[in-house]
Amino acid sequence: MKSLRNRTKLCVTFKRNKVLVILTTLIATVTLLWLLRFFWLPLMGDDPKLLIKNFENGIGKCILDKEAKILRVTPCKDGSIHIPANFQDFPQSLLDAVLTAEDRNFFSHPGFDVWAIMRALKQNISARRIVSGASTISQQLARVLNPRPRILKSKLLELFTALRFEQNFTKEQILTYYLNSVHFFGNVRGVEAASMILFNKTSKTLNLAESATLAAAIQAPGKFNPFKLDSNKLLQKRRDWVLRELLKTGKCSRKEFDDAIKLHVPTVRRKLPFNAPHFCDYLEQLLPEAKGKITTTLDLTLHNEVYEIIRSRIKALRESSMNQAACLIIEPKNMEIISMHGSAEYSPIAGGFNNAIFARRSGGSILKPFLYALAFEKSYYPSYVIPDTMQVFRTTSGDYRPENANRTSYGPVTIRSALGNSLNVSAVKMLNSLGLENFYNFLNELRILDYEEGAIERLGLGLAIGNSEVRMYDLGQAYGIFANNGQYKSLKCHKSQKQEEMDFISPESAYMIYDILSDSSARLFTFGNPSFFKTRDAIAIKTGTSTNYRDAWLAAFTEDFIIIIWAGNFDGSPTTGMSGATACGRIFKDIMNIFEKRGRINLPLRPETIELLPVCGTSGKLPNKFCPQKGKDLFRKGIQKPPKCDFHNETDGSHRLMPEYASWLSARSLINDADPYQLMRLDDFAENAVTAAQNSIKILSPMEGDCFIITPGGENKTLLRAVPAMPVKEIIWYYNGFELARSGPPYEAVLELEKGLHTITAISPEDQTASAVTISVK
Prior knowledge:
The chain is built from 23 helices and 30 strands. By secondary structure, it is α+β, with helices and mostly antiparallel strands. The strands form eleven sheets. The chain has a five-stranded antiparallel β-sheet with strand order 7-6-18-17-16, sandwiched between helices. Strands 24-30-29-26-27 form a five-stranded mixed β-sheet, with no helix packed on it. The chain is elongated and about 130 Å long.
């Protein structure tokens, strides 16, 4: 009996000594590690900075709007879904729950927890199997960033790596890296992505129950999968344990606990946001190597409102065979894109995956403001009069005769009326005056057109009325010069994007364009005053329509926004008569309602270097006492002062026009006997007579080198037209040296064509001025 007691005592002593030996060994090991961390540690384990770098290089993009709302999340290299977050994004409830579940001594240990190791060792010995772990968050982070086989060597390497993390980073940094990289259910990685997919909210807005759920799932992501029924129950059971531990340690109140434990863990996987798809596609192409969060300039609230507008209007457009619409909105101050819709819907319908913002389409009249901006830079002014009359222009591709959209000529029109009413003939004449190459270079420098060999000859004078292809993106960028006092600034779509800036036109020219396009009375000829152009504030508006109504355009701007709208078909097929005004006007009006509801709209201010001067309502020049209608218009102060009106010098109320209006007047006389417009008489120049050397005659038709082909059975006739610089009673037409006809205003005659080479001469018998052209007939 005594022997048995001695053996039992010896056994107990042995067990005690064994535990003591283990504890002594453990303490000695910990002490040794503590001492070695300053000497050998840098040579052991993984480099934590390299681990972090490798992780961040492998993550996808998280594209955010200007207010940090998620637009799109792209997968990481390993296919996982990850959304970066900062320490400030984690609520205290989440931090408490994670530390309670995974590492309660996190803020006090050096990377390993002695007491946790002793606790785990004791539990595992008692159970004779692994029932408890002692890995700290620092050790788990080492394992998450560089997974290894679960063997002793791996554990030691993870321990050394954890020590190096503690040596190189603060506790907040380590915890942030951990919460960003830790695995969750499925392919989800990091707390932020888990929060979005499980709760459809950011981690910043998590409540106590949700925080405890995510903390509970970390221990075994495969085991605690909320989207599987059995796993969901296990996750809820562990979540409840986390809540009880939080209550026990005073991290939450009894009421908070009671409210949280009643809630169920969701079972449905939420889809991540997929907003502004055309914009995000563009950004991914622009920044293919970018990683992590990308804060953009997009205003998602506005963008979604515009989407609803386009969707509500596209049905009516499709009834006119116009299947697509797109819209680009820019904030001018910083030239930031705040909304981008590349089609009516991001879908296969009518090619909706295409992005019209970057498609090249025929511009129609949408470029005319830039033509007149160049004119203002060359000392023209808004009341300058252009003859809106028929004229044939010789080009490298043949004779070119522009027409207005309604095939009507308006005679003397000011630049204000010509631009406001989008008249084609006046625009072509202005381009001819300014020089085609000058305007092409102007558009090239403005990034609207790319330089192309032979483009000037190919485009010709039709460039004035939009025969070139343009992109919405480039148009929005170019219209910025009018909203920014003449300064050019390239567009910006993300916060770190660098921009090109330069002074492009004068503030005076920019304001003159704004003033004309915001003047509703300046567009009455052709547009009237449709309801969709009626706005609370003076908004500058310009429309455009391409040939066969293939493309409809609208551009609008103030200091607060630039709006570019396009409607048409991606395949370029024609529509059934929808102009830029009718197709885009209602979309524009709906968008304006949004901006008006947001509050005050800032409008461009008139520069102090511009003044209002009285002008004749017809000639656009300084009025005299005979001018029946007078108004005011813009001029550069101290630089521009127009001459006195020469249209009016009697009290009969008639408007005396120069000979270049003769044909237009002749056509008007057929339908208007009491026409107030009349051709100037010779005695109108009695006080300022001109010499023969100053006068000249120009043959408008035919033109030098024209070739005619006789058609059997046809009329085979052509109209001869000429215009003298100053009025003459008549012009004598000579055909191969023989007199053909005499004609007064509008100085026209008819020639019957004969085969051969012929010379046609126009002579004024009063001052002996003459002009001649040679034609051929086959």
